[in-house]
Known about the structure:
Blueprint: H1 26-39, E1 46-53, H2 58-63, E2 73-80, E3 86-92, E4 97-104, E5 111-113, H3 118-129, H4 132-140, H5 145-150, E6 152-156, E7 171-177, E8 194-199, E9 204-210, E10 249-252, E11 255-258, E12 261-268, E13 272-282, E14 285-301, E15 313-314, H6 316-320, E16 340-347, E17 353-375, E18 380-397, E19 400-409, E20 414-422, E21 427-428, E22 438-442, E23 445-448, E24 450-460, E25 468-476, E26 489-495, E27 513-517, E28 530-535, H7 548-552, E29 560-564, E30 578-580, H8 586-590, E31 601-611, E32 621-633
Antiparallel strand pairs: 1-2, 2-3, 3-4, 5-30, 6-7, 7-8, 8-9, 10-11, 11-12, 12-13, 13-14, 14-15, 14-24, 16-17, 17-18, 18-19, 19-20, 20-32, 21-23, 22-23, 24-31, 25-26, 25-27, 27-28, 28-32, 29-31
Bound molecules: nickel (II) ion.
Residues 424, 450, 452, 611 line the site of nickel (II) ion.
Amino acid sequence: MAKSLASSKTKSAVPDHRHPLDPLSEAEITSACEILKTQKKLSSATRFAFVQLEEPVKADVLAWTRAKSLQRRAAATVFDSKTGAVHIGIVDLDKQAVTSWIEHQAKQHPYGQPPIIIEEFFKVGDIVKADAGWRKAMKRRGLSDKDIELVQVDPFSSGYFGREAEKGHRVVSAVSYYRTDIKDNGYAHPIEGVVALVDLIEERVVDLVDEKEIVPIPKTKRNYHRAAYPQTRKDIKPLDIVQREGPSFKVEGWQVHWQNWSFRIGFSAREGLVLNQISIHDGKKQRPIIYRASMTEMVVPYADPTANHHWKSAFDAGEYGLGKLANALELGCDCLGNIHYFDVPVADDNGVPTVMKNAICMHEEDYGVLWKHYEFRNDTFEVRRSRRLVVSSFATVGNYDYGFFWYFYQDGTIQLEAKLTGIIQTAAVTPGQPYPWGGMVAEGLGGPTHQHFFNARLHMMVDGEKNSISEHEFVPRPWGRDNPHGNVFDTTSRVLSREMDAAREADGRTGRYWKIVNPNLKNSVGNAPGYKLAVTASPLMLAQEGCSMRARGAFATKHLWVTKYDPAERYASGNFPNQHAGGDGLPKFIAQNRGIENEDIVVWHTFGHTHVCKPEDFPIMPVEYAGFMLKPNGFFVENPAMDLPPDKNDASVSDDSKGGTCCD
Ligand code: NI
């Protein structure tokens, strides 16, 4: 946690250029929260769950010029920690006025709560440890009063199961871990069969599971800090990334230029890193591709039916906040080379601004060969190395750490890679007994099988505001006069014309892919210019129909969703996924079945990873990758990277004396 809470009171290094999409500055956060506190007479019990820029609608942003200012607004999700009342307030920062103050009906079906805030991470431990029933459960498992002091209590979003204690109440489920000292890795010592449902407003345990059968707490220490691994490998020499002339990117405030790319960095408390107005310079034109790209939600449903696990399905964006939990990245450790960091102002739980230092990292990476050919007939040899620009951010949500890496390539490709690392959820297993709900990672320690789903929201703008999306597949052509040798196969193509028709699943067997095109323009070969959404083999949610986590995380039941742009539809899981009864978000959006052909469209892509745990995942899991690419498809007239200079890297040396001739 310490890293994600890194803060300082100093002014952000980022100048306030006040582009309409720039994240809120510290001064704007202060102003927004003070205006709300004063004008709405908020009590000292008020907590600010999310404070972020209320983005102007797209048309206004596109019409904006530096000569005319555009209203800056802040949106705050606030709740009263004594009464539980929830409001969404919009503040006009220019007029210094609250322009909207809407109560969210958290006490009425389908419910929904603001995310769990940092203060509650700590509060839950105190509440649980003061509960006599919970202490008794710990003592039944052999823990002394001194041991109990050291127990790690995790406030886990508790989902929604129709229990009276959760309907309209603000609750979390607390699971516990034994520790020998404050630095000990608690996830090596899960305390099985005890779950406390904590009402965060009433500040008490309202339901306690204390299973009769006692599973021994695994006691073997499994730490990962450097002191736990004093013997490190000796055969690794320094690998330095040196850019003597500096990086090739230019940064002006939140605006970035690199190679032909241009985009704006954005950030929100809920989504974390956002990329705005991605465009590429081509010939004499600056061509838009994506208006806004972000990670709107994640869900991690667990597949273990036992007391400690069956309800676990963390929505890390909507239930915690990927922006609020962003790490301070460290030069030379998280990021290698010539780095530009973006410091991001955020509001703390009390509406006081802090600056998250180094929350976003940007740098260039060598990425092997981009294109190459050797023509043996005339000895023409050309090769160009690929370089990519990396914009990244990491969020630590409890046990897991998630990296979000956007890559820009010189050939027009955009890639998002989610990096999954950190510590798995663990389960204690009685020695000698099987663990049917996941994989064993150590003696007496299992890891419940689970899935990770991410949802990227891509507000597309390929060469203009009106786009269409088409689906393509490869199918064999039957023998016949038009296939006399049997070798022909076809690429099918159909436009997805309405929202209900565009909730789609990927299919690796047919190579199904989707293309976002501008049907109003023609490319060099007479077709609509486009970008292909290249998806990777990715699971869908396996929880049964009727299961609560499926109803709440329905965005993970399809790989592709397409909606007509509505500024109110921002999150795949809806506005208040925490303790929501389900049905919000994408399935609700597409029920309108709006036309999406030649319209202002938003593409939502769900991708993920099914995780069956293994010993190699412990004590820290090596990074697992999931993601997708957007590749130009009929967008350029030729390979747009043909103009890369044939430079040879002078710093490279051969480890024998013969020297290299690869680029001569
Ligand atoms: Ni996992």
